[in-house]
Structure formats: C-alpha cells, structure tokens
Model the fold of this input.
Amino acid sequence: MSAQQSLKTSGAPSLEELKAVGQLASEKDMEGRGCLCIECIEEIPCNPCQTACPQGAITVGFPITNLPVIDRAKCTVCGLCIPACPGLAITIKSVKDDTARVRFPWEYLPFPAIGDTVRMVDRQGRELCDGTISSITNPVRNNRTAVITAEFPRKFVQDAISIARRS
Amino acid sequence: MNAEKSPDSRIVKHAVLGDMPAQKEVTIYFEGKPLKALEGEPIMATLVAAGVTVFRYTKKGSPRRMFCGIGRCTDCVMTVDGVPGVRTCVTEVREGMRVERQQGVGSWKVQAEASHAQ
Amino acid sequence: MRNDGKPAVVIGAGPAGLCAAIELKKAGAPVVLMDENAKPGGQLFKQIHKFFGSQEHKAGIRGFDIGKELLAESLRLGIDVRLKTEVVGIEAGLKVWAVEDRSKSYTFDAGTLILATGATENALSFPGWTLPGIMTAGCAQTLINVHRVLPGQRVLMVGSGNVGVIVAYQLMQAGAQVAAVIEALPRLGGYGVHTAKVRRAGVPFYCSTTIIRAEGRESVERAVIASIDAKFQPIPGTEQTLDVDTICLAVGLTPSIELACIAGCKQIYIPELGGTMPAHDEFMRSSLESVYVVGDIAGVEEASTAMEEGRLAGIHAAWAMGYMDETTMKTKTEETKTRLKALRQGVFGQKRFEAKKRIVEGRKEA
Done:
C-alpha cells in the first residue's frame, strides 16, 4: 500500500493514488453506458457495496477490510451501490462526444433542481466548470442519500466528482 | 455573531433528519425575558436557538456557555427557578421556568418550601 | 453456576449496555438497565451517518435507526429500564446505590454487574479555550442532530479523527460552514472516505497544525492556528487567523471508569484506547468475577464494536448466572467474537486489535 500522501494530508485521494490500487477508470471504460467508480483506497471494515449489488459485480470478500473489486463485465451501472456506500465514495461516470456525466451521492440541503446550472467540483473541492442537473432520485430504499446526475464538459471528467454546496 | 442577536437557529429542514416535527411549545424566562421553548428539549437548546452566547460568569467574570452538552462537565450551569448550579444541558424546560445567569457559584433564591429544580 | 435470583444490573443504556441487557433478557435472566439520562440510547441518537461494517453489524444503517431498533427490542423483551437513575456507588457484595430523579436514593443487591458507562470527550487547553463558542465535537453533534439547533455559523474543527471529520460533515448538513479541520499529527486520522467527502465540500485540512489561541470578547470571534514542528512546537511566522464563531474539539475520549474504580476493578493503561481502563478477559469480565465492562469504558472504539462487546458480556453473564447452557454460550460467544474480529482488521482495526489483546493479558496478570 502506498503512503497515500494526498489522501492523508489533503483529505482526498490523488489520481495517482487511485490508479495505484486500480480504482481510476479510463475514459474508454466510461464510454457507452458508463462505468462504476469506487474511491475506497484504505482498508476499512466495510462491505455494503458488495451486499447492495444484485449482479454480484462488486467483491470485497473476507476479511471485510479488503478493497472492493469491480467486475465490469457483470456491472450494469444500476447505481444501487451509490447510496449503499456509508463512505459516499461511489460514483458512475459516462462520456459521450463532448459531454460527460457523473451520478453521485448527495446529503445536503438545498437539493438542486433538474435543469439547474451548478458548479462542478473536483476532489479538492475546487470549482471546475458549470454543470447541469439532469436527474435526482431519492427513493425510500436510499435511506436518505439522494443520487444526483450532472452533465458537464468532457475534458473535466477525471477530476469532477460532485457539485458545490449552496448555502 | 454577537450575543443574543442571531436569528432563531433551529434546524427546521435537514436532508437526513427530515423536516422538524411539530412540537408543543412552552415559555421559559431567561433573565426575565420570555423565550419560546420546545417541550422535552433541554434548557441549553432553547438558549442556543435564541442566540444566547453567555450562560454564566465565573467569579472572576469570565463568560461560559456549554462544553460537553451531555451532563459531564458542568460548564453550562445556571440558576434555574432559584436553584444555582443546574446543568442546563440535561435539564428539560418546563412552562414558566425561570433561567438566570449566575455569577460564580451563584446563590440560592428559593424558599424552603419551593419545589426543587432538576 | 449460580442462580440466586439477584438480577444482573447493567449501568449505561448506550449501544453496549442495551445489547448486554438484550442478550441477558433473551436468555431469561433477570436484568435491570439503568441510565442517568431521560432517554435511553446513549450517544447513538446523534449518529446520523450510515455505519460501516457488514450486514451482521448493521452496516449501511444510520446510527439513530440502530438506536431505535435496539430500543424496540428492549421494549418487546420487557426489560426493566430505569431512566433518570444515577448509580453513585457500588458497595461490597455488589450492592448498587442508585439515585432516582435526583431525589430518591435506594440500594439493592446485584448478582452481576455490567458497566457500560462509556467515555468522556477530552478537553484541550489553549489561551481563550474557555470562551463561549468552544465546545467538544460531541456537544456540537448533540446540538445539531438531537436538539436541532445550530451553535454557530462558522466552525473550526480541531482534530481529524473520525469524530472530528464526521461532525464537520454533519455541521455542514446542519447548515454551518466549516472553515478548516486541523490536525497536530503530520497525517490525518479519520477514514479517507470521510475526509474525502469533507474535502470535496471545500473544507481545507491542515496537518501538523495546532490552535494557538481563541480570540473574542464574550464569545469566539477568531481562531489563530499555526504549523508545528516535529516536536509539536509552533513555528513562528506560520500563524493564520480564521474568522470563526465556533471551535469544536475532537481530541479523543477517555473511558469513564469511575464506577469500575469504586467497584475495585484492576485498571490498565492503554494509551491507544483512551488511557486508563479496567482490564478484562475475552468475555469482557473485569478482574472481579461478576463485574463485566463493555463499550468505551473497556477501551474507546466505536458503536459497532461496543454493541458486540455488550453481547459478549450478556451471553457470558447469562451462562454464569445459570440461564444458558455451556454449549449455547460457547456457540454464541464464538459467533460474536467472529463479528467483533471482522471490525478490528485493516490499517485502523489492527492497532485496536493488538491493544485489546494487551487488555486481556493485563487481566491475566491481575
């Protein structure tokens, strides 16, 4: 395991740290229906992502401190694991032409509305660009973790992770 | 944020906790001033909602508010219905309750027959 | 084996105490659960985040929902829960001295005692630390999540362990701004997934940084922070002033061992788990045969481990009191230990696992 310098000093992982544990999806992975991105690079005792997946596409196994491994062939990008993750560490990213999309967990008020222009942020909380909200879901089974989708320019797809909080 | 000037700082909407349920209101008196309190909440919560930042002064005149919030540290003690040294973080509000800042350890202001505060 | 009719008395109705009482009652043992507070649940009801672990640890369920489940179960089982009841003394022969409603004092004989008294948050002293607006992180968490009032608008969090980082996140959920999270050590303490969600909300983390002083006339108006060197000394010229009205201290917890001391349990010093605490064996039994210690009093960990420790003690005590056969006790104990071990693995858990082993070794020596 690397020193995780960025995660353990800035609070968020760097692209290199994600890559080192095989958790950085490529833009090729994101084409078409998109792909699951789990950013869980520390061995913590946790496996609800595995339990939530109806396809058996996420494996944590034993001990439950193992890092999750995604079987992309099995994953249907249904997104059930997004609100199941207690660490809010799962997103789904996709790209098409010049546009990228990220589906991410959200637990702050106020919620944005569909069609709203928002500011996309990177892992360090820096604002990257404008984005547009295309979907918000928060069914009972999410247990109060909403799942929001935002669209934004493709060139920011590796860095964009969420949207800026409005107060 | 200056003492007693902030608006009611109740969290009425919350993404996880939901909307605050309707609760019965009671009135307590802080330094003689009526404050809206919610039945079942501790005195500390009413005062924080009202923006009160000083709960008491030490005998040297240093201001104090709350510290642990769960009845361990006694930072938040006040004179309640004449009884000094009452932990406001674990004492529930009651209709008509009189809550006053105390100086130092405070002094008893109740007659022997008065009911004890919690 | 003994069955003298005296009840098991569980002191503290937090996650550990509730689980101990539930296991005892399920086995048919007489049990009395006491708590000084007006409501049971301990600190579970301020935990509004989803818990880690796996399904059998109730992972993915929010802390307050776990609290509701435990309360419903204790009600269903008909456990004798005595609230607003402070235990102020334990005399020889396990005579428990309780004060009810701060007015009525009584004593009665316990056959078994389970101490689940929890832990107390540590303070940190610096110039200005007594100013209104400075509070423990747990205090802020109680205010926002239980009482639903916001103690301030702009917060500095001191300490980057899970408590500090989780409360920083929850303060933002409650509508506050978090100016920064500072950490004296060179690396952040909390889980990376927690720090990452706070970081992407725009909150800066400063490692190797301490608070120099809090400023303000009648309450906090500013905090001055500075970088520190390898010897934890402030580096001149690195001071930074933050405009905040609230400073939260998340600098660890210390086991609340008063009753264990009064009872005469042998203590052991384990700094990784919060300081001095009663030594205990693998069944959570202290140095005294009929006194168990569970949850944070037995070493500060988390609610999920506290619940399993409570179950371990409840199962063993039920057997010792003659309400469970040995085979059932052994099977249930093994199941519980397996769940507990799962929570004490990985980079964070391994240290706690090793420290807990030292507590058990300490009990053997005592």
Chain B touches chain C at residues 1-3, 6, 9-12, 14-17, 20, 41-42, 44-45, 48-49, 53-55, 62-73, 89-90, 92, 116, 118 (CB under 8 Å). The longest strand of chain B covers residues 25-30.
